[in-house]
Design goal:
- The protein is α+β, with helices and mostly antiparallel strands.
- The protein has 3 helices and 11 strands; from the N terminus they run H-H-H-E-E-E-E-E-E-E-E-E-E-E.
- The protein has a 6-stranded antiparallel sheet with strand order 2-1-11-10-7-8, with no helix packed on it. It has a 5-stranded mixed sheet with strand order 4-3-5-6-9, with no helix packed on it.
- Helix 2 packs antiparallel against helix 3.
- 17% of the residues are buried.
Length: 191
């Protein structure tokens, strides 16, 4: 009688462990296909101090501000990239790439405008650029626009992000037309 009872208990334990493995596999597949769930907290509930941020100021604009120039002269200095009235260079944004062009991979030839906000790249449907291949992580990389150009950051991906054939280990500036490889997809930033 005790051996029958022991065998029955072992069967139930084995069945419970088997179901735990099934749930773990389903959760992992759901995470790979749909990305991690994110919870957004309304701005009024966040405990973040509401202090205004000041954007980085070009060197010429700082000298215009220090010289006691008017606010409009200061704004002009930021836009022109030099002190007011100095006939500075053209606006910095004119030399910053505005398009992302896929040059190799499943979506070769596709172009998208970059905009000004951060662009996330990965398998997740929440990403701005969705790349569906086995070598791309759910949240793989991020492109951010800074005053001096675009910066690429690898988001601890499994297979890495490559800029000009070199693995990205820290945020790096992206030159125009430099190949960025994520998984089996290669793209460039262009004007």
């Amino acid at each position: 009688m005790t051996s029958t009872l022991t065998l029955l208990v072992l069967r139930f334990v084995f069945l419970a462990v088997l179901w735990l493995f099934v749930f773990a596999i389903v959760f992992a597949l759901r995470s790979d296909f749909f990305g991690q769930r994110t919870r957004t907290i309304p701005a009024d509930k966040q405990n973040v101090p509401q202090t205004p941020t000041t954007p980085p100021v070009p060197a010429g604009a700082a000298s215009a501000r220090a010289a006691g120039a008017s606010p409009s002269a200061f704004t002009e200095a930021i836009l022109s990239g030099g002190p007011a009235g100095s006939g500075g260079a053209a606006t910095p944004s004119a030399s910053i790439p505005t398009r992302l062009v896929i040059t190799e991979g499943a979506r070769e030839g596709m172009e998208m405008p970059l905009g000004s906000g951060p662009i996330t790249i990965g398998r997740s449907s929440e990403s701005n650029v969705v790349i569906r291949d086995d070598y791309t992580s759910t949240h793989h990389a991020r492109l951010e626009l800074r005053p001096d150009g675009w910066i690429i950051t690898d988001l601890d991906s499994t297979n890495g992000t490559f800029l000009n054939g070199q693995r990205v280990t820290a945020p790096l500036p992206v030159p125009e037309r430099a190949p960025i490889t994520i998984g089996t997809t290669t793209f460039e930033l262009r004007r």
